[in-house]
């Protein structure tokens, strides 16, 4: 391969990457931009017309604020449970000698079930059992959705745990529990934090499952959807823009945390 061919391939790859990023980020960036438009009709504002009017109006939207609080609580509980259960699943995978592939696929299976199917199935099961739609039913649906992703993140972090270090600790008399607390846990801590934040954001933004499983107090995505269809004020764009900004900042902080963690270990 000549130098010119290599340069041409890199240019093509960069163009494809840029186009892919534009397709992914253009819609939320457009939504963020129109949230600064003070007009009632959504549209891109001019630089001279940028306004925080709709953001200032957010505290008066009691339904949105209540749904946001409910969503944050559901997301927090989901993230805690998903991280803990995924850690147990990852530990089980590491300890297994036979059936690893089966265990891995079993944990990941909910990831491939469409949200509509999963939400409807859970709703039918809960109805059959006499369980009323509530925060608990929403958390159960979000947990099935978030846990496979948390499992992958945590399992990947186990690559930092060297078997030789565990064997050395065992030779010095450390129990399995002390090996986990003193060696494994500090090494996989970035993965646990990543899994928690990932699960939190997945739950916070989940709509399909919550639509079937929510009780009287709907989650924020469900409320935003209903207000969008009823022709509500553009304050919903401000709420969406605020969540988008917080999500981006959270992911950026997580990336920085992982980078600093890798530098400390190196």
UniProtKB/TrEMBL annotation:
Superkingdom of this entry's organism?
Bacteria
Any one Gene Ontology cellular component term annotated for this protein: plasma membrane
Q: Which GO terms describe its biological process?
A: transmembrane transport
Looking at the UniProt entry, the stretches that span the membrane are: 12-36, 72-91, 103-126, 146-170, 191-215, 235-260
Q: What residues does the ABC transmembrane type-1 domain cover?
A: 68-258
Its localization reads:
Cell membrane
Major subcellular location class: membrane
Which Pfam families does the record cross-reference, listed alphabetically? BPD_transp_1 (PF00528)
Assigned keywords, A-Z: Cell membrane, Membrane, Transmembrane, Transmembrane helix, Transport
Identify the CDD domains for this entry: TM_PBP2
Mode of membrane association: Multi-pass membrane protein
Q: Which InterPro entries match?
A: Bact_Polyamine_Transport (IPR051789), MetI-like (IPR000515), MetI-like_sf (IPR035906)
Cite the PANTHER family for this sequence.
Answer: PUTRESCINE TRANSPORT SYSTEM PERMEASE PROTEIN POTI
Instruction: Describe the family membership recorded for this protein in Swiss-Prot or TrEMBL.
Output: Belongs to the binding-protein-dependent transport system permease family. CysTW subfamily.
For this entry, the protein name equals ABC transporter permease
What species does this protein belong to? Rhizobium quercicola
